[in-house]
Amino acid sequence: MQPTQVPLKDTIPVWYSKRYIVACMCRYSQKWGMKMTTRPVRAFGRDEVSREDMCSERAIHLEDLFAVRHSMLAAGSAARLAGLFSVLSDPTRLQVVYALLRAPQGELCVCDLAAGLGRDDTTISHQLRVLRNQQVVAMRKVGRVVYYRLVDEHIRQLLELGLTHISEPDLSTPVAVTQSGEEVLV
User: What is the C-alpha to C-alpha distance for residues 104 and 112, in angstroms, rounded to an integer?
Assistant: First the structure.
């Protein structure tokens, strides 16, 4: 079965022309279809990148390049998702969201949240406003009392998945693949 041909102009930026890719392939490879390698990779910039976090040889794999370019997250979606994660990166806001997740009636007023978290009303009110602007929580007002709840099940799932993830054992140990295809710890 032949892979689907994807036009270059739809998958990669303009400066990645077909001629440029072929020139890279010629420079990095001695034979088409084999691993294309060059000099060892150098880390640039002020923040040195650890050698264990980088490939020890530069290799361009066209199929992977095209797959990445074809399935790249749109800039607008990436910005909105980054905004959501940045809102959830604050420990106080995360405690507020967690308290709302575990609320017996599914919602809490600002006073109950502030007292329960040991913070003042203005701090919690500010954090709730930030969460509301990012559509993480919704509010309802009953007289002078304002109740907040999580917007939908997605926020609950996101928080529960995050909690599950941080309780897992550390799996960040580097693994290398031998020529026979076996994985070994580095």
Answer: 12
